[in-house]
Design a protein that fits this description.
By secondary structure, the protein is mainly alpha-helical. The protein has one domain: Arc Repressor Mutant, subunit A. Helices cover 63% and strands 5% of the residues. A hairpin with a 5-residue loop joins β1 and β2. α2 packs across α3 and α2 packs across α4. The longest helix has 25 residues. 10% of the residues are buried.
């Protein structure tokens, strides 16, 4: 933007942040992030087998410190269910699909190996 004869004017950090947020939302980044958080919440509570929508919202809020409105929760659960990552049990509770569990375990294993290799490479030689 031009500011009279003084040349270009800088945008405030708040305005830049808002523009970034809007553009990321257009790209679906926020939806994907929220779905990953729900998958993480289900992963964290695997010992319970399945969670109700309210238990899932409480887990995201309490364990991950992110409040989640019911409408958003339902929207993302529907997308995850349609994508086959999450299953809905007859009683309405949600659980990770077996495929999602396998993929998550594999991903965690690959990350652990990569971290171990990185630690080996970055260690200083003794002596």
């Amino acid at each position: 933007m031009l500011n009279g004869t003084n040349g270009p004017r800088q945008l405030s950090p708040e305005l830049v942040s808002l523009v970034h947020h809007i553009e990321l939302n257009k790209a679906g980044w926020w939806d994907l992030a929220m779905q990953r958080l729900l998958l993480t919440a289900l992963w964290l509570k695997q010992d319970r087998i399945a969670l109700s929508a309210s238990d899932l919202a409480a887990t995201v809020t309490n364990e991950l410190n992110i409040p989640l409105a019911e409408a958003m929760l339902n929207k993302h659960l529907q997308a995850l269910t349609e994508g086959g990552q999450v299953l809905v049990l007859p009683d309405g509770r949600y659980k990770l699909s077996e495929q999602t569990v396998r993929e998550s375990r594999s991903s965690i294993g690959r990350r652990a190996i990569a971290e171990q290799q990185a630690a080996t490479v970055t260690r200083e030689p003794e002596g």
